[in-house]
Design brief:
53% of the residues lie in helices and 12% in strands. By secondary structure, the protein is an alpha/beta fold. An 8-stranded mixed β-sheet has the order 3-4-2-5-1-6-7-8, with helices on both faces. Helix 2 crosses helix 17, helix 4 packs antiparallel against helix 5 and helix 4 crosses helix 7.
């Protein structure tokens, strides 16, 4: 049996050198709840915290007692401020963040020209990777403001956890000076060569282009790149700055997973990628782990006892059927626990140096600050 290296969140959040915590992993594993619980616990232990979520389901707003979240931090009331901490929360609006970049880095006339361009509108709303990139743009903005001593990021849900690390470089490569020069190169061979080069260059981004129909497509693209040309270098520079920020001391990645094969497989990929990119991994949080208060009652004993009750005896038939049903439910729960234990053992055997924290499966969904405090308490257990 592999010995678990325990992860204690309190040690991490109590360290003033910890300035950014990034919660990552595959979709549907509880990243948003974990990020919110870490932010709340840190604030109630004296940190000035902002939680940035990318969850469109708005669960974070509900659990923090806010009517809504938007692209600006909002103060969370009802937290214990005896230690001097404060908690704010926000939800990324990727188009508004992109618009803010345009407004902040272009003169007013050019900014309005860009914002009204159909190609830009499609790019800022639906380009693959835009959400992940804008999350990192917003992280950089929050860090630069210096109003908080801890930023907790709930990363976007994606089909692959690796998309989060790839997106800044991918979008930065798309929006860099070389791409600009390609699109603004003079037409050759009566325009036919230019058209072929353009088609080849933007073929990878057909999902965006397909959203823009009609004869104005080429004109819209040309107008867009001409207006945005002066800003393109900044995208790459900020992408590189973000990458350095993620690698720097003071940043901590927490991989969140459920005790399921696919989720733990994604977690393993992320652990390996973080190691390759020399990004600081704090540990793994396994969420919704099943537990029992009667571990000594095995599957076999439960099923044997259920059969005995149904075979007749001093117990009335109705009570016997009820007790037998409960014993069978317990047997199924023990099977689930055993399966989850094997999956966890497989992960810890492969990555024995990765600290692990477990959050039990709760009987109800987390929907308020008290629920987040419960999660935080489990995270703090070493």
């Amino acid at each position: 049996m592999t010995t678990i290296n325990p992860l204690s969140i309190d040690q991490l959040i109590d360290d003033p050198a910890t300035r950014i915590i990034v919660c990552c992993g595959s979709g549907g594993v509880g990243k948003t709840t974990t990020a919110a619980a870490i932010g709340l616990r840190a604030a109630e232990r004296g940190r000035h915290v902002v939680v940035l979520t990318i969850d469109p389901a708005r669960r974070l707003a509900q659990s923090m007692g806010l009517s809504k979240l938007d692209n600006s931090p909002r103060k969370v009331d009802g937290i214990d401020t005896d230690a001097g901490g404060e908690l704010q929360a926000m939800m990324l609006d990727m188009k508004r963040t992109f618009d803010e970049i345009v407004l902040n880095h272009a003169d007013p006339a050019r900014a309005q020209q860009i914002l009204a361009n159909p190609f830009y509108q499609a790019l800022s709303s639906s380009f693959a990777g835009t959400q992940e990139y804008m999350a990192m743009e917003k992280l950089g903005q929050l860090r630069a403001r210096g109003e908080w001593d801890l930023i907790v990021v709930d990363t976007p849900p994606s089909r692959s956890a690796l998309d989060f690390l790839d997106a800044p470089k991918r979008l930065g490569s798309f929006l860099d000076g070389r791409f600009i020069r390609l699109l603004t190169a003079p037409a050759k061979a009566g325009g036919r060569l230019y058209t072929r080069v353009l088609a080849a260059s933007v073929g990878l981004f057909s999902n965006v282009l397909n959203r823009i129909l009609g004869t104005q497509l080429l004109s819209d693209v040309q107008t867009f790149v001409a207006a945005l040309e002066s800003m393109f270098g900044g995208f790459r520079e900020r992408a590189e700055t973000t990458y350095r920020l993620l690698q720097a001391p003071g940043t901590a990645f927490i991989v969140v997973a459920a005790p399921e094969p696919d989720a733990l497989r994604e977690a393993a990929y992320f652990v390996e990628r973080l190691s390759q990119e020399q990004m600081p991994l704090a540990g793994l949080v396994v969420n919704r782990v099943h537990q029992t208060r009667a571990p000594q009652l095995s599957v076999e004993r439960s099923l044997t006892a259920a059969e005995s009750l149904l075979d007749g005896g001093p117990v009335p038939p109705e009570r016997a059927r009820l007790a037998a049903g409960l014993l069978r439910l317990h047997a199924e729960r023990m099977r689930v626990i055993a399966r989850e234990h094997r999956l966890r053992e497989r992960f810890t055997s492969a990555y024995p140096d990765v600290p692990v924290a477990e959050i039990p499966a709760l009987p109800v969904d987390v929907h308020d600050l008290d629920g987040l405090r419960v999660i935080g308490t489990y995270l703090a257990k070493a």
